[in-house]
Amino acid sequence: MIRKEAMKAVLEEIDSSPVISANGFMSRDLFELKEKNSNFYMIGSMGLASSIGLGVALKNPKKRIFVFDGDGNILMNLGSLVTIGYLQPKNLVHIIFDNNSHESTGGQPTSASKIDISKFGNICNYKIFVIKDKNSLKNCLKKIKKINQSIMIVIKISTSKERSTRISIEPGIIKKRFMESMNRSK
Amino acid sequence: MKKTFQTKVFNFLQKNGIENFIGVPDSTLKEFISHGLRKEKIIVTTREEEAIGIASGMCLSKSNSLVFMQNAGFANSLSTITSLVKLYKIPMIFLIGWRGYLKDDAPEHTMIGKIQPKLLKTIELPSKILSENNWEKNCKWALKKIKNESPCALIVKREFHD
After folding, report:
1. Number of other CB atoms surrounding residue B38 within 10 Å
2. A136-160 pLDDT tens trace
3. Kindly report the CA angle at A171 between A165 and A177, in degrees rounded to 5?
4. Which residues from A are below 8 Å from B47, CB to CB?
5. A124 with A82: CB under 8 angstroms?
6. Range of the domain at B128
7. Is residue B34 assigned to a domain?
8. Domain contains B161
9. ipTM over 0.95 threshold
């Protein structure tokens, strides 16, 4: 699977749940696959998708909050796993699309090829899933609906030359409509 | 800064709509943070950027936050402030302990302490220095700023040695 295929499979299972997506190609793929008001497209601030997601999750305990993260992104903010593990929000689903590379900056390697990110999740009180194909991804997404705990899904993906379009929405508007969408469905 | 003073700042901001107090501990702000911990209202993070990220997520959920840090941590946070807080216009109050304000503070604080006011100006983050006499007025100023979607900073000078 490439990231876009994996993300498509995820989006088919999570309905209209809010998504915080990491900067770079992650947000661009989401924008192209399923544009909606409750997507918070992070443009800058690399590494912080998990922290923003934690803030949203803590304030909306009745909603499932999804974070779409990359291996490069989470490796920049491993500390956020510790804080998530300490606070243990039951409604946070942290998906890490792991291609062992910084694809958005030209495919340079991350250290994830030799370091198993899911093990960090394990010691940080997450329920862990490591996924390598589309069928198990679908099964996993069905299974997690019944789990009342912070969840980390590490999806092993391959790199790709496919490029999604840039996000054409102004950041102030991304914020505003996300806030409104959270309010409406409270 | 006296003990009662930082405690009053905490109580005043909490009473006026600040729901979350997130950050990395700093000895200059010790009384503020200890008071918040006693009230079980503090989230301690591993780094300052992380605190800003969490505060941003809470703001997206219409819950106002204060992020506390030392000025060394403020320097860590510059990119997060420019590419998240300022870019998306996410209002929050930064409470920053100013090490290196005294010329004979510990050496690691000298340079950052010296450029602290310039750094704030350069990244266009409006700020006020809190004192015994002006804290209430400046807290009201900060609350008004975030009401108008503008992030801002309150600074506490380090005026003692340990």
Report:
1. 11
2. 999 999 999 999 999 999 999 999 9
3. 100
4. 77, 79
5. yes
6. 3-156
7. yes
8. no
9. yes
Q: What is the pLDDT of residue A112?
A: 92
| CATH (domain of A106) | 3.40.50.970
Q: Identify the pLDDT of residue B159.
A: 87
Domain range for A165? 3-184
Mind listing the pLDDT tens digit for each residue in A159-182? 999 999 999 999 999 999 999 999
Q: Please list, in sequence order, all residues whose beta carbon lies within 8 angstroms of the beta carbon of residue A177, skipping any fewer than 6 positions away.
A: A37
User: CB neighbours of A49 closer than 8 A, spacing ≥ 6?
Assistant: A20, A21, A22, A23, A26, A42, A67, A68, A69, A73
Residues contacting B160, CB < 8 A, separation 6+: none
A50 contact residues in B (CB cutoff 8 A): 53
CB contact under 8 A, B53 and A59: no
Number of domains composing chain A: 1
Residues of chain A where predicted confidence (pLDDT) is lower than 70:
184-186
**B89 in any annotated domain:** yes
Six-digit token string for A123: 């010691």
Q: Could you give the CA distance from residue B96 to residue B32 in angstroms, rounded to a whole number? A: 11
How many domains, chain B?
A: 1
Beta strands in chain B (DSSP E): 18-23, 42-44, 64-70, 93-98, 127-129, 152-157
- Domain with B76 in it: what CATH number? 3.40.50.970
Of B46, B54, B88, the CB nearest to A54: B54
B51 with B24: CB under 8 angstroms?
A: yes
Q: What is the DSSP string of A99-160?
A: -SEEGGGT-EE-GGGTS-HHHHHHHTT-EEEEE-SHHHHHHHHHHGGG--S-EEEEEE-B--
Rounded Cα distance between B80 and B50, Å, is 9
Q: Best interface-test mutation with A: which of B42, B56, B64 has the largest number of A CBs within 10 A?
A: B56
In DSSP terms, B66 is beta-bridged to B21, B93
Structure token digits, residue A186: 């409270």
- Rounded Cα distance, A95 and A44, in Å: 19
